[in-house]
Amino acid sequence: MKIAICPGSFDPVTLGHLDIISRAARLFDKVYVAVLKNSSKKNSMFTIEERMELLERCIPDLTNVEVITFEGLLVDCARENDAIAIVKGLRAVTDFEYEFQMALINKKLNREVDTLFLTTNAKYLYLSSSIVKEVAKNGGDITDFVHPAVAEDIKNRIHKEIKG
Ligand code: PNS
């Protein structure tokens, strides 16, 4: 069984993430979507549990995909789950330098795991979790950026945050 891991912060999950996850699910027998627990990003908007719940709500049809959390090194999470590949989306040249460095470090740390980059669907080239939060915070429409099953929840949550 070929197993892959799609890691990220998913704060919150976007249509760009879901595009990569569903394409990985076609390429591999099993895909673990691994949500980073000990995120050093200080301004997280959603808790780990909320991020997992939002993700799970978007992927009921992807029966070979499972949402998990991890802390520490991604390659250790890959090893623990018998994954042979880390699958990530590449949006633009701006992503490349960081992702290339991560891929090389991860290969150095665990030679058994390869990093695969899927070219982001052109529709989602501009999309990121930060953009979704920024647009929602400022009253913009995020329905083209996130899955319909979670759009309302994300909007409400973000508005609540702003009001305090
Ligand atoms: O969605 P993000 O924030 O771009 O995801 C980044 C993530 C979770 C893939 C990355 O931060 C990560 O792999 N963190 C775990 C620590 C690790 O293994 N780092 C690489 C070796 S230093």
Give the gist of this structure.
By secondary structure, the chain is α/β, with parallel strands linked by helices. It contains six helices and five strands.
Polypeptide structure, described:
The radius of gyration is 16 Å and the shape is globular. It has 6 helices and 5 strands. A 5-stranded parallel beta sheet has the order 3-2-1-4-5, sandwiched between helices. Strand 2, helix 2 (48-58) and strand 3 form a beta-alpha-beta unit. The mean pLDDT is 93. The protein has a single domain (3-163), classed as 3-Layer(aba) Sandwich (Rossmann fold). The protein is of the alpha/beta class and 164 residues long. The structure holds 4'-phosphopantetheine (PNS). 4'-phosphopantetheine is lined by residues 7-9, 36, 73-74, 102, 105-106.
Chemical compounds bound to the protein: 4'-phosphopantetheine
Structural category: alpha/beta
Strand order in the largest sheet: 3-2-1-4-5
Q: In percent, how much strand structure appears in the residues?
A: 15-25%
| Number of helical elements | 6
- What overall geometry do the principal axes of the alpha carbons give? globular
Mean pLDDT: 93
How much helicity do the residues have?
A: 40-55%
Low-confidence regions: none
Rg:
16 Å
Query: Which sheet architecture does the biggest sheet show?
Result: 5 strands, parallel
Number of strands: 5
The H-level CATH homologous superfamily, spelled out, is: HUPs
- Multimer state: single chain
H/E topology pattern: EHEHEHEHEHH
